[in-house]
Write the structure tokens for this entry.
Amino acid sequence: MDRRRLSRQELIRARHQDGFVGRDGELAAFRANLARDPDEPGFRFLHHLHGQGGVGKTSLARRFEQMAREHGALTVYTDESVHSVPEAMAEISARLGRQGSPLKAFDKLLATYRERRHEAEAAFAGPDEPGDEAAPSPGSTFLARAGVTGIGLLPGIGPLAGAVDTTQLARGTDRLRSRIGARLRNHDDVRLVLSPVEVLTPVFVRELGDAADAVPVLALFFDTYERTGPLLDTWLRDILFSDRHGPLAPNVMVTLSGRDALDRRCWADHLDHVADLPLDTFTEAEARQFLAAKDVTDADTVDAILRLSGRLPVLVSTLAGSRPHAAEAVDDPSDTAVERFLKWETDPVRRDAALAAALPRTLDEDVYREAVDAAAADHFDRLCALPFVTGRGGRWQYHEVVRTAMLRLQRRRSPRAWAERHGRLAEAARRAQEQCAGGRDARACHRDERWRELRLREVYHLLCTDFRAALPIALSEVLATAHHEPPAVRLVAETVRQAGEDGDAPEVRDWGDRLTDALDGPGGLVRALTALLARPGLDGPQQALVHRLRGREHRKAESWERAFADYDRSLELAPDDTHALVGRGLTHRYLRDFERAAEDFARARDLDPGLVTAAFQLGEAHRLMGRHEHAITVFDQALELDPRHAQTHGSRAVCLRRLGRPEEALAGLAHAIELRPDYAWAMAERGMAYWAMDRHTEALAEFDRALVVNPGYAWAYGARGSLRLVTGRLDAALADLDRAVGHGTATTWTFSRRAEAHLLNGTEDAALADCDRALAVVDRTVAPDAFRAVVLAKKAGCLRRAHRMDAARDAVGTAAALAPDRLVVRHETALLTSAVAGLRGAASAWEALRDATEGIRPPYGIDPTKTAGVAVVSRCALGDWGGARAAAAALLGDGTAWEDIAEAEFGVRELAELMPEPDAATAGRLAALRQALLRRMAEVAPAPP
């Protein structure tokens, strides 16, 4: 293509102005690659520069970029200021746009993503809903373990995901899925927020190719890749080596520049395609060449610089900065390396400012003014021009090697001045915190990233001022952050570690190492809290707080016994801690031990009558125990404290439905939704209210509405699936119940209902598996015996039909011991006895069942007792054909649910199978009864959609 080529003289001038010296081999290889046709086998489209800090990676990468531009390439240079894949794509698009090659379609989609992401984050930051603490779904657990969830999916976590164990992270993913629908109604928008990389990348790759078509090469440079690699590795690998996001233009060339080698777990299969460029210190020849280019040629001076710098390029550059010509300038053995860095800065004010500005970990102009003396306040721009100071995203930072040396110099030269300067910086950070807080409470402040940054700045400088006095403050901040914003604990731990290193305080450094090491392992926050608990001198209130926080983490991880142990110890130390009481009460509640939960919630309310959470949870405990009238009284008391508490209005309405007052329940749920328009739980409960009124169409519409608002709402899927089962939509019911389980609902009810659907569908192996899953859930909770008995009876039926009689006998025997009067248990006992001893041998059992169903008439509801089947089948088993026809007639009338009729037909069919050779009259009666039931099932079942 036509393009203006630089003249040889322009190339020479550009390189002279650049001042780049050395790295001849790397430059030659890169230049040769640019000259190749991208279609040639030898063309390298991926280069990797790596080596320790200060070896000149950034300088070489910049030189590569300049060479590419000289070749006519479009170039984009990024560094660690990008914190996610979408940010990386946005930065590349913005820089291409400034060069006249905008990615218009991508920019439009990116703008939509940012708007929807903001809405989703607002939803995610809202208050917890019932079910937020449920076990994570398998899909979310997989994402968490794969390390994907933290890469742009969970708002506010990102690269901090290592501080959260996988169970917590998976719950965060489920919570995001559950809440995103509250703000986003369009399916494409939901997918854009949940999977931004999957949606944005194909558009990005396509338009990147369009831009690349207009130039010989499109060169992308990713600097400081040791920081961004964990976020970008998989994405870059996929766009370079797979078709996952569409084909990439062949002339797109990528250069990665970072401290570490590429992660073999990601790149192992593709390393043959990487031009690997490891960098070390300058060779002596390169260092001398560099100094000569800077006009430093005196042999003794050159030797001194080589000795002091260790040939590390950044230090060679610093020492050569003012072109010293005298050996004495660098050969004084009493001077330190730092003094050499600034030896040629003749202005003492600027020299002192450069030293003082090394004290903060990062700089902006405001921090600079606090760090330096007033005389140097206006010299910030001069400081930023120093070769060891780099700026990114409005922040400036010293090179690590230089800063470390400067800190050591100041600490040793004048401990008093060191402490005074750090104290001044700590006080400035404290004032900025107060302004940022704006009167908000501790929880709100800790959730504000800017406030947390200022707080950590204060903690760092306090530790450097007087570590003995400040260490308790720092460790208390660890606890406060663990209380209000657990993912940010790692930042506090790293701040403590760095303060110990920079301030040469071994005790502080050890604490930082201990905390960061703990956070790196499984159950990281629990381990960190355990480390804090072992600290000598921890007072009683702090011990109580540690136990309470550790109990919370154990509860989230479903380590119930450990959770109780910590909550109990916390309450021994602080008996009046209402937060610990509520936390322990929630643990009892999740284990379905509602009595003990109510005791804890009641005590918390008594201690703090204004605590709405305690009042609401107390009402919930009574509701879950079936004490609906008492629950309403407690909910009314909670509403006196907060009349706009939507959850209380919703739960109160559910109690009204349970008390047979569905119209009042509908009104209460409508008010809850009015207060909180995204309240999917209330919408689903309104569906249950319509169901109780046999208004099935309206009930299904409410479940649908709840799932539009919250596409990940597992319980709504379960409820809709159960209603579809009742009304005869068997395939749709199974699909919904599968979704309920897939989205994380691990309840006895869901598995039990799916087992019913599998039985009616004829898939008995699947029914047996769901019975076992239901029992596993029961084993983890303090469930009523009747729950276990019903599931055991269903399991016994599956085992009996599979001719596993011993196992069936054990299961039904255990069920009978738990709930002997439960109809489903007595029914299965009669069936099993009939299978072994015949109908005559089971006559007494069938007579008892007949008597138990006298006077029961449809509708039978959704209680899993198989009442309809028992009423018909028990009479058939006794040869009471008149009674069987009467019971069946009631079933065949209007208003009976399809499931009840199907259960009766299933029972009659089972009974027929237990009669190996019935007489003709009996066989005919059973067949006629089955046909009548089947006809009615066909009439009741809706037409396929």
About this structure: Confidence is low (pLDDT under 50) at residues 6-17, 124-173, 328-336, 858-865. Strands lie at 46-50, 74-78, 218-222, 252-258, 274-278, 389-392, 395-398. The chain is about 65% helix and 5% strand. The radius of gyration is 36 Å.
